[in-house]
Amino acid sequence: MSIHKESFKRVTTHILSEMKLKGEKIAMLTSYDFSMASIVDKAGVDVILVGDSASNVMAGHETTLPITLDQMIYHGASVVRAVNRALVVVDLPFGTYQGNSKEALCSSIRIMKECSADAVKLEGGREILESVNRILSAGIPVMGHLGLTPQSIHKFGTYAVRAKEEEEATKLLEDAKMLEEAGCFALVLEKIPASLATKVAESLTIPVIGIGAGGGVDGQVLVAHDMLGITQEFSPRFLRRYHNLFAEMKGAVENYIEDVKSKDFPSEREQY
Ligand code: KIV
After folding, report:
1. Residue boundaries of the structural domains of the chain
2. pTM attached to this predicted model
3. I want to staple 115 with a disulfide (CB 3.0 to 4.6 A). Which of 77, 207, 217, 249 is the partner?
């Protein structure tokens, strides 16, 4: 029996940089489980992010801080089992890379070994550069993440747009260049002014993928549960909802309850 599951051409970090060169936009979405990842991959998304937003979406926490490395590995491995084509990136959760670069490397190695992921993502710039370098030196591809970095929510105190002032914008551009020079293969920019995101994308050769960062970047990422309308409360300006799955699923469950109570289900044909 073959151990190769794909008949598709897999997306690699090299393919993503070619896409930037050709001006072809990169489509990235989150997934945290086998069933969702299977749909997202079959639809043809280029990158699947096993985001630590699983902490909010899957576990119902208010922030991304509580999710553990073991939990991220469970989500990552579930996603990888479903994927034939997309590049799979797994977030390093809060507290597993900020302490020191050795810990960052050990966390990344666990993700690569136990999930069979393609890459890891870390939040931050110069503060985590030593960790980024150490992970990269082990041959693990790294995606950066600047702008609104939800793991630092208690420092920011708000989920408002970042880098509106010149000082923070200058630091963000410098950090982006540092991450590129270190060898990151791509960068996520979250919730920053579109003009700044465009400037960063034009200044870097690696793909820049935005969420709430306008259309001048090399690709877009959204949380799948948000764009499908499964989550309800989260409604930032940058979010385009493609469906109202919450209402559709709720309606289906209500129909099922009604059918059970009225003894309509199961019918003669639905039993043995
Ligand atoms: O965890 C996540 O889903 C993310 C995206 C919002 C980029 O980091």
Report:
1. 3-241, 245-272
2. 0.96
3. 77
